[in-house]
Amino acid sequence: MIENTAEILQVRHVSLTSGERTAQASMLDIEFGEHSDIGKLRDNNEDSHGHVVPANPSQARSQGWLFVLADGVGGHERGEVASRLAVDTVVEGFRHSRASEPHTTLLPKLVEKANLKVYEAGRSAAPGGTHMATTMVACALRHDRAVIAHVGDSRCYLIRRNRASLLTRDHTVANEHVRLGLISADELAQSPNRHKLLRSLGHDLFVNVDINQTQVVAGDVLLLCCDGMHGALEDSDMANIVTHHRDLNESARELVALANERDGSDNISVQLIRIKSVERVGMYRGRPYKLR
Length: 292
What we know:
Elements: E1 2-3, E2 8-9, H1 18-24, E3 29-37, E4 47-52, H2 57-62, E5 65-72, H3 79-95, H4 103-124, E6 134-142, E7 145-151, E8 155-160, E9 163-166, H5 173-179, H6 185-188, E10 210-215, E11 221-225, H7 227-230, H8 235-244, H9 248-262, E12 268-277, E13 281-284, E14 287-290
Antiparallel strand pairs: 1-4, 2-3, 3-12, 4-5, 5-6, 6-7, 7-10, 8-9, 8-11, 11-12, 13-14
Helix pairs in contact: 3-4, 8-9
């Protein structure tokens, strides 16, 4: 499912039969909400987002869940086409992935495929081609682990005990200057290069995809967002709003409203994923086994 309009999706759950509910107690169980808004100054929404929900507990264990968010690069033509195409490619690829394929190898492969699709779509646009590009952050969940793949400056946070921890690294010129010690972290927000991307999907034929893996526990919330949100809000704002609202749709609405109040110069999109329970596993030679 792909959205790039100002629409709120209701919190979703896997529909289970009575026999399946017993098994659910020992499997990954989540709820989620999503919201996207055009902002106060833009004429169109260049953000897109999508997700894949397993149909049953067996599919939850073999394939897992997917959430993906893309932000069409401002200043380039057809940013909304680039973000929609990228999200569609990753969503469809995840749906048709082989059972139990490791997310750490699957996600980079799907993001690289999305990059090629966007690149080729730009090159084939008539007349003479056009430059299409987008950022992307994707999160796949299975058992007790979340795998995050990203390109650009769309982010993923882990919110735990009212504290937001950034799980991604912005691929921007300013952030690279901080890493190299050329500017301080305090100077980052004022840098003229803070929005200048070093990487994006569709810019080149090949792209380097960052991958990260983290263990999740019941009560955790994963937050995926574009720079229209994280550029306007402090990490503490996100943590406080998510922590103090049980309803994820209400949290999403309040986050977007606050980002619009603070700035609103860009599109604003967010996905919230709350971990309700997990299935604890260990890994042996890349394969999971259940811990008792």
